[in-house]
Structure formats: C-alpha cells, structure tokens
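Suppose a colleague, Dr. K., hands you the sequence of a protein chain of 689 amino acids and asks what its three-dimensional shape might be. Before reaching for any lab equipment, you can write down a predicted structure in token form. Begin with the sequence itself:
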Amino acid sequence: MSQPPQPPNQPPSGPPGGDSHSDADGQAQGQGGGFGPPPAPPSGSGPAEPDPADSSRQDPAESDSAQAGPAQPDSAQPGPAKPDLAKREAPGTEPSQPAGEPPRPSGQPPQAPPAGQPPQAPPAPLPPGQQPGYGYPQQPPGAQPGYGYPQQPPAQPGYGYPGQPPYGQPGQPGQPPYGQPGQPYGQPGQPPYGQQQYAMYPPTGPMPAAGMPQGGGQGSKQRMMIIVAAAVAVLLIIGGGVFFAASGDDDGDGKKDTAGNSSDGTGGDDGSGGDGSGGEKPAKTDAELLFSVDKPKLTDVTKVDGLWVTDKAFAKGSLNSVVGYNKADGKEKWTLELAGQICWGSKHTSEDGKAAVLFQDGKVGSDGRVQPCSRVAAFDVNTGKKLWEKQVSLGDENVRFSEVTVGPDVVAAGGLYGGAAWKLDSGKELWRPDQTSDCEDAGYGGGTGLVAVRKCGSYDSPKIEVQKLDPSSGKPQFSYDVPEGIDYVHVISTEPLVIGVDAGGAVGTSDIIAIDDKGKMRSRISTENGKYTVRCSAVEVEDCKMVAVDEDSLYMGTEEHESQEEDYGRTNEIVAFDLDTGKARGKAEAGGRRVMTPLQMEGDTLLAYMEPTYDQGGQVMAIDPKTLKSTVYLKNPKDSIETESSYRPSLNVRLLYEGGRLYMGQTLMSERSSSLDRKEYLLVVFGSE
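The predicted structure, expressed as tokens, is then:
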C-alpha cells in the first residue's frame, strides 16, 4: 500500500506570528486590484476586508497608485494596451496571457506517486505564478492529467485558443480548430470538420499549496516530523488521480463546521440562520448518496453537457443521448437518442419542464473526425418526448452553433457563423439575426429574459454590444456598448442584467458589470485579479458559475487563504456586492478550514456549496441575503467523500439544488487511462430521502 501524501493544512513551523505572511500591512499591499499586471501576492496571505470604496466610480489611475503591488519577476510578460475605460466608466484591462501559454483546466491534479513512496518534504516556495493550486500535493515535472480529466497531450490549449486540434482528432496544418481565434468573428470561411474543441474553465491566479509552510528554510526537521506524524492520520482519497487533501475539521464541536457572517463571525449551526422566504430547510439535513449513474463507455474526450431537474424527473446529457430518470427511485425513465454528441445543454428549463440541446450532425467517425454542431432540439424533461429538431441553412451548408439557451417561450442558438430563434413549444422559427453586416450574435443568455452578445468587426478590433431582446421578434429593447479592449463577454443574469467581461488577462473574468433597464452601466465590480473566483468558460456567452445574482446583489466567493481563527488551514468567504453602488456590503464566512462557493438563488435565499474535506462531506448552505447568516440545508456523508470530490465546482461539472436534493453532473469526460480502480459516475444525487 502506498504511503499517504503530505497532510493538508499542517501547522506552520516555528512560533505563531513568526512568518512574514501574517503581516496585515503586507497583505493589504498585495491585494491591489487596479489595472495592468497583477502584483505578486504575499505567500499565504488571505483576502483583505471588502473595500468600502465605490468601485464603479473609482478612477483607475487612483486605484493603481493607491494599491501598487511588489515588483514582478523578470519573467513577467508585459500587459496589453489599456482600454479607454475612464471615459466609459467601465472595467479595466488585465495582463494578457503570455504568448504560447495555453490554458488548462483549473485545479488540474497531479498523478498519484508510485506505490510505497513516502511523503515528501515540502520544497522551497515557487515564484509567483508557478505555485500549485490549493488542495493538491506538489506536481512532479511532466506529470499528465489525472483520471477524471480529459486525457490530452502536454501543452494542449483549451477551446478558444490557438493551437492543435484536440486529442484523438486529425490535425490539418494551417487551419485553426473551430471556435478558436484563428477565425475572426464576422469574417468569411469555416475551418474543416473534425476540429471542434470543448470549453474549459481558465486557470485562476497563483495560489500556494495547501498546508505548505510559507517561510524560508528554517525548521526543516520540525516540519518533517509534523508531516510524518500527520500523514499517519490523514485519509488518502484517490479521486480520479487526485490526492484529495483538502482541509477539514476533526474536533466535532460543530463550531468549525459552520459558516459565519461579517457582523459577528459566529455563523449558524444546523438550526439557525437565514429565514429567506424562497428556501425551506429540509426536515432532515443528514444526506446520503441516493442515486448514481455510471459513466458511459467512451473512447475519447466527450462532451456530456446538460443537467435538468423538474418536480417529476431529472435528466442528464450522455453519449449521443439525453437520459431521463424517475425522481422517486432514480430508475431510468426514458432515453432521447441524438444524431451525434452533445455540444451544449441549455442552462435553463421552462416552468412546464421543457429544455433544449445542441448536438452534432452525426456520430464521430472511425478516423476520429467529428461533425459540426448544427442540430438543435427541444424536449420535455418529464416524458423525454422530442418536441422538435431544427437546422438552419446558409448557402450550401448548415450553420454551426456554439451554444443554445431557453428564454421566455423561446429557444435561441448562436455562435461564430449565425444564430436563430424558435418558438419553444412548436419549433416555429421566430427570427434570425441580421446576416448582411459583419456582425454575429456570439450567443444568448436566457432564463426570465433574453440577451444577445453581438460582436462586429474584425477579431483584432471587435465592437461588442449587449442587447436586451424581445424574445418573439429579436428586436433590441436597448443596447449597451462594451468598452473597447474587452475580448469576451459572458451573460451572468438576464434579469437583472449582469455581465462578466474578460479584458484579456490570465485570470479570465476581470470585471462584472450591472446594466440598468435603459442600457446604462449600473455598477462595476472588479474580481481583483483573481481575488474573487467567478468562473466563466473561455469564450462562451452563457457559462458562468460560482456566482449568483438576485435583484439587488451579486455574490462571489473569495480565493482560499490562510484561516485567521485556526492554527493552520485554509478558508474563504462569500462576499455580497450592492448592484447599485458596486460596493461590498458584507460577507458570509465559510468557517474554520472550509471553503464554499455560491451555488444558486432559491427564491430570496442564496444557496452555497461547502466543499468536502478529507474527513467531512460537502454541504449545501442557505445564506440570508440580508443578515448573511447561514443554515445547513444538506450535509453529505463521509463515506461518499471520494465520489463527491470529483464534483468540485471549479471542475467541468454542473451542480443543481432542487427539492432538498443536490444533483451533481459531469459535463466533460474521457476514456479512463489510469490504473486506479476507482469508479467514475456521470451523475450523483445526494438527499435525505
């Protein structure tokens, strides 16, 4: 049996307060959130208290001068030219990703060490930008992605970046894969089939490894003694090639297992906290693994997007199909066969249980070539009945779409080469965006409204508009001009209208903008170079997670940082921002050695997901938006930690809470290439009954 890895959240060597990372002043200086390259963060520092300054009104120049960080290493790449944001009262730029550096799935775990290998002493801290992510041990040079991730060649770029075709698909020199910036928006010509890439979430900013001492080389013997002693007690979780060594609470007093709030820091236990009218606490909070669906037999990287839940059934995208299950017993209820692999599943379901899916025009051939994503179908989640299936012709070819959404009695699909909208019930075509200009509807956001992200001009100098549409006609009700210099725009919410923008930096979404009903900027909220961990996929319009919005507020989790209340361990907070002012108005604390992220709104209540640790299952927390006090809604069992750890929100997964149950589905899977004997699941459901 192999030895367990280095334990998470081990106490730092030396006396308390001896490390420089505990210096509050130094910490504040390292959190500058202005424009230009991000400063190197102090080792082990946590986020500063929410800045009471109005970020939507602050002058970028004043922000830079007030929050100047330490000098960057010599290897730092220069940032791009700054967008003219002062004139537009909009977010600024961030440094661009270094040339030739492809993105990779965030939180990518290393391979397990060889059997019998003892825990290694922690190496010297790495330079900023090279430190491994929290929750995983050190990654050896050249390690391949672990089981649970799509198996790709080294340095394989993600969807939306220049590079080679995805693993298992034939390459064609001189032609960029479909959906990558080699083909500018609005310019003629389509790359050949067989080069569709899939969306990955961009990496977060530099982050120290969990439990790593942040000081220098002193006390190495003491550190080794701590490592060896703690390794005996830690439970090694082998989750898809991941050593899941997240921090946890083991004293059982309940106080360290709850979230706090910014007013008193004590938080709530199982019976206290939020009283929002939208969320009802289940009679029983101790959950169990109710149902699981095995991974389909795959031969390559496969998109299995789509997770839909109604009061009668739940459905999951699978290989060339959508499969529905009975909510009462979890048994398969129906199967909707598709012509090819799923490209996109709608993020919304209508009130009467209807959803939509975008899929390929045919199955993957024996040579690995894939067909374009040109077919759209609507179906009834309760019965599995296909309501209709459509394609849109443009000349001699069918239009390729990137994504599909469901809005008020409408299904809308958009992408690089065109868009269309159909009536949800009948499939009657309602409208198409104007194809006579050099503009394209890159995608749509749905739900209670319908919003288009329209991109005009060349790829090098695009002009982007966000349009609130009349769903029945497609005519804009108002438009918001996105500032120049913004590369990508993501729709986070349609009512109220909230978008995320990517100014070209390495952290992905750099700013969040709230827009009023007249098309004017309501407020701007900076993610401060990764301090706040909203995740939006590379180029898609409607694929943001780890963020929630209600009528008045935006909720984002902070990056993980050293716990101030524990001797060791990492934690974070969920911060609430006022959409009218852009100011932080309070925070809910995850508590000792726990990490949580916004999940969704349930009526007037914010639901958050507390990630599992090595000795505690995950939890669903209800947070009162007014007091930011929390209540435990669901507490998952310890014996399912290994399974649950494969569904961390930062991975390619989708999480939904409905009717007292937590549904967790994979969105991208691959053929297993690891020797590990752990079982993979397409979908798991936790609940108390």
